[in-house]
């Protein structure tokens, strides 16, 4: 199974680049993994939030394949413990999914069409974080889930 992390916006900022790179490299010991940073919509500051989300949704849907399992990160989603995330990933792998995509939406969230397309909506926290930190937290938590699945020492109960 391949894991892809998708995020709208600019490339990783320097202050998180090393951490994201390190956890991504570690995940590769368990799953094929890749980041896709979707370029910001041109002239986004001239658009309303609703129109911006619609244009971002078009960009996302253009990249998605029908059989991709889409996990949307959203503060209103279901919260999981690290162990539950590990089980969740293992269940998807056992189901024979070829690719799961973790999507970090834009600054204003995502259009309803993406919310409806998502197979699962996951909340890292009830708090709101900057996108760059979400990228780092996401990579670390997926790595943590991988180590839990292999009973490795990284995660302590």
pLDDT below 50 for ≥5 consecutive residues: which ranges?
none
Q: Which class of secondary structure composition applies to the elements?
A: alpha/beta
Number of domains: 1
CATH class: Alpha Beta
The total beta strand count reads 5
Question: What global shape is seen?
Answer: globular
The CATH topology is given as Alpha/beta knot
The biggest sheet, with number of strands, parallel, antiparallel or mixed sense and barrel status, is: 5 strands, parallel
What would you note in describing this structure?
- By secondary structure, the protein is α/β, with parallel strands linked by helices.
- The protein has a single domain, classed as SPOUT methyltransferase, trefoil knot domain (Alpha/beta knot, 3-Layer(aba) Sandwich), CATH 3.40.1280.
- It has five helices and five strands.
- It has helices spanning about 15-25, 50-65, 80-95, 110-115, 130-150; strands at about 1-10, 30-40, 70-80, 100-105, 120-125.
- A five-stranded parallel β-sheet has the order 2-1-4-3-5.
- The mean pLDDT is about 95.
Notable characteristics:
about 160 residues, alpha/beta, Alpha/beta knot, five-stranded parallel β-sheet, about 45% helix
Write the topology of this structure:
Blueprint: E1 2-8, H1 14-27, E2 32-38, H2 49-63, E3 69-79, H3 82-94, E4 99-104, H4 112-117, E5 120-123, H5 131-149
Parallel strand pairs: 1-2, 1-4, 3-4, 3-5
